[in-house]
Amino acid sequence: MEYRNLGRTGVKVSPLCLGCMMFGRKADEKLSMEIVDKAIDEGINFFDTANAYQRGISEEYLGKALKRNGKRDSVIIATKVHGMMKDNDPNAGGISRRHIIAQCDASLKRLQTEYIDIYQLHRPQSDIAIDESLRVFDDLIKSGKVRYIGTSTFAPWQVVNAIWVSKELGLNRFISEQPPYHLLDRRIERELFPVAQNFGLAILPWAPLAGGFLTGKYKRGKERPADSRFKDSNEWADHHFTEEAFKVLDVVEEIAKEKKCSSAQLALSWTIQKPEITSSIIGPKNLDQLIDNLGALKVKLTDEDNRRFDKVSMPGRTILSYYEVDFNYYKYR
Predict the structure, then answer these.
(1) Environment class of residue 227 by beta-carbon count within 10 Å: exposed (0-12), middle (13-18) or buried (19+)?
(2) Is the pLDDT at 327 greater than 80, yes or no?
(3) What are the percentages of helix, strand and coil residues in the chain, rounded to 5?
(4) Counting Cβ atoms within 10 Å, is residue 184 exposed (0-12), middle (13-18) or buried (19+)?
(5) CB neighbourhood size of 136 (10 A)
(6) CA distances for 233 relative to 228, 296, 321, angstroms
């Protein structure tokens, strides 16, 4: 395993990060522990979860797995705060001081750890000044409960603004951003890549397989698999099923066949071989998917492969019509 620096820090992380969103959703406690153990055995030392994933269950399963195998001090845990944790309570979500402090303590308890390596704002929130979140994050770092802080699905201007506010107030600053990034959506290449380079940010893409579309499980004109993420027709799912998207998938499948690897391995390899990418977040729901994803580390792309991708996948742009590019930079369901 070739480890990489986590942005401007000296922390080393694996180029694939095990996302735990499926823990408690598609993977029960036993299977979740098996996935964690296998990932560690294969050299993955980076795990990403969130308090909102099954309202704490994902964190609980990850914490139990690391407690059982005794590997907590050997791995990097990233978790997030923002999502609603209770119904009918307007203060049970968001990025206010009140909610962040309460949820940090709750996450520490669920994860069975004394500190969180990377604590992230899961989403921006326009009705709360960023300095409120930054001040409480700074307090958590000084208390020893948090080591580093980051963002998820922030527009580039929001990241830059937060870094400026941190500098003005003398606060600890964000060291990472988690954006959506894959062959169907390459918008972050336009502005976030330069921002990351200038400010030493780690970029940790989520959905590198476009919600499973780039695995090849979906076929033109055929019913969607019953156990798939996009099995039900809705606005967010349907925007993947365009001729432009299938043209990208055609090239993925062609090159994967030439390299004797799976389509998922090729699509993942495309992300982690970008010099701007620190670690891509995978979200396997079983051991077979995890093992297949790990194979991406052995796939090598050539300049000609990338030219073939660029002909159907527009650099710096998205072919997913659901997303709006301007003010609502990342529209996400």
Answers:
(1) exposed
(2) no
(3) 45, 15, 45
(4) buried
(5) 20
(6) 11, 30, 15
Residue pair 103/81 in contact (Cβ under 8 Å)? The answer is yes
Q: Which of 3, 53, 119, 323 is catalytic?
A: 53
pLDDT digits (tens, 9 = 90+) for 266-286: 999 999 999 999 999 999 999
Active-site residue 119, yes or no? no
Strand partners, 178: 152
Q: Is 4 helix (H, G, I), strand (E, B) or coil?
A: strand
Measured between alpha carbons, how far is residue 95 from residues 102, 116, 145, 203, 259 in Å? 11, 17, 17, 21, 45
List the structure tokens of 310: 């660029």
Name the residue among 179, 131, 141, 183 with its Cα closest to residue 318. 183
- CATH class assigned to 4-312: alpha beta
Q: What is the pTM of this model?
A: 0.95
- Per-residue pLDDT of 27-55, as tens digits, reads 999 999 999 999 999 999 999 999 999 99
Strands 4-5 and 12-13: antiparallel
End-to-end, the C-alpha distance of the chain in Å comes to 34
What pLDDT digit, counting tens, does each position of 122-168 carry? 999 999 999 999 999 999 999 999 999 999 999 999 999 999 999 99
Distance CA 260, CA 322 (A): 33
Residue 107 carries which side chain, given as an amino acid letter? S
List, as one string, the DSSP characters of 120-137. Answer: EESS--TTS-HHHHHHHH
